Amino acid sequence: MTAALYGATVVNHVEVTSxxxxxxxxxxxxxxxxxxxxxxxxxxxxxxxxxxxxINATGPFTDAIRKMDEPQTQEIVAPSSGVHVILPxxx
Length: 91
Description:
Shape: extended
Distance between the termini: 38 Å
Number of strands: 3
Strand content: 15-25%
Number of helices: 3
Strand order of the largest sheet: 1-2-3
Radius of gyration: 18 Å
Order of helices and strands: HEEHEH
């Protein structure tokens, strides 16, 4: 919420469809689609978000975003299934 208080546009449930680069190849933003509109049966228009910096915090989808920047890049994420076990504090 701090970002919004300082004038940033804050969005949620958007899908990155491509990265925007300047003439030197530096990433300066992303093109995105609103997934909420699509889930509600409405057509979702693609729009651009400009940024001084782009952070890839996509978890298991990291490689998909990295490949938008460099298609030949090697994948670094190996998905796996697992179980989280929570035990009482006395164990």
